[in-house]
Amino acid sequence: MGISFTVLSSGSTGNATVVTNGETTLLIDAGFSARRIDELLQERDLTGGEIDGILITHEHSDHIKGLGPVARKYNLPIYANEKTWDAMNKSVGKISEENRIVLDSGEVKDFGTLRVESFGISHDAAEPVGYSFYDGDDKLSVATDLGYVSDKVKRAIADSDVLVLEANHDIELLRMGRYPWNTKRRILGDMGHLSNEASGEAMSELLTGNTKRTYLAHLSRDHNMMDLAKMTVRDAMEERGCFYKETDFKLCDTYFDRPTPWDKVSKP
After folding, report:
1. Which of 227, 226, 234 is nearest to 207 (CA)?
2. Phi-psi region of 14 (alpha: psi -120 to 50; beta: other; left: phi over 0)
3. Do the beta carbons of residue 79 and residue 138 sit within 8 Å?
């Protein structure tokens, strides 16, 4: 059937994404209350009972806030590397041993015909990761909460048909914003969050004939706007000689308060 996905919500207040190939349905992160996750799922005609497992990128609260309650409510297995498990144990609460599954950074795991590959990213968490999903010739990659796009990450997400990539902040809006300097320095650093400019720079190297859409994700509500993010990413790509037609490639929105439409990842 190929891969379909919806970004249930993305931003500093919470993050969750659903990926399915019709046989297996996986939730990436659970950064909202269990009640809110149920509401978001219902908006895309899903229930928690249809989820087969939860993949965790890292232990920050905007990615695991509802993890324990959701996993217990629906008896779901949770997949995370050992360092992330150690970092989130207290926050998640009691999880049955059979549902505590270690998925090492860099490991590839098959869920039926849906293949999942974990890859390490740079962020101020215990051992943060992104994920690539494969079904036949389809490839979807999700990479947010990273201070910069390393060569290793570029190799992991290269040739994705669809990409969910962080565009967290506008650098000048962040510098002029109300955050204390230590927080600003953290966000701007190599272990922080990807700026619009850095996202565009990465896309200028990643855009190939395979890549049809990139969803700009994890936007700051204080220091970014979707129109600004898309304009800056596009300008950064063009400055590096990467031009595209809207009919061939599209930058897509994500939302902090509602899901994106279902998107089917498939080659023409």
Report:
1. 234
2. left
3. no
Cα distance between residue 83 and residue 58, in whole Å? 9
pTM of the full structure: 0.96
Which tokens hold the place of 102?
Answer: 């270690």
Query: Which residue carries 């928690």 as its tokens?
Result: 48
- Pairing of the two strands 3-9 and 16-20: antiparallel
Domain enclosing residue 253, as ranges: 4-264
Residues 74-107 have pLDDT tens digits of 999 999 999 999 999 999 999 999 999 999 999 9
Q: Cβ of 228: how many Cβ atoms within 10 Å? A: 16
Q: Which position has the token pair 């270690």?
A: 102
C-alpha 130/C-alpha 120 separation (Å) is: 6
- Region of 22 (left: φ > 0; alpha: ψ -120 to 50; beta: rest) is left
Number of domains in the chain: 1
Joined tokens for residue 119 = 């890859």
Residue 147 to residue 115: CA distance in whole angstroms: 26
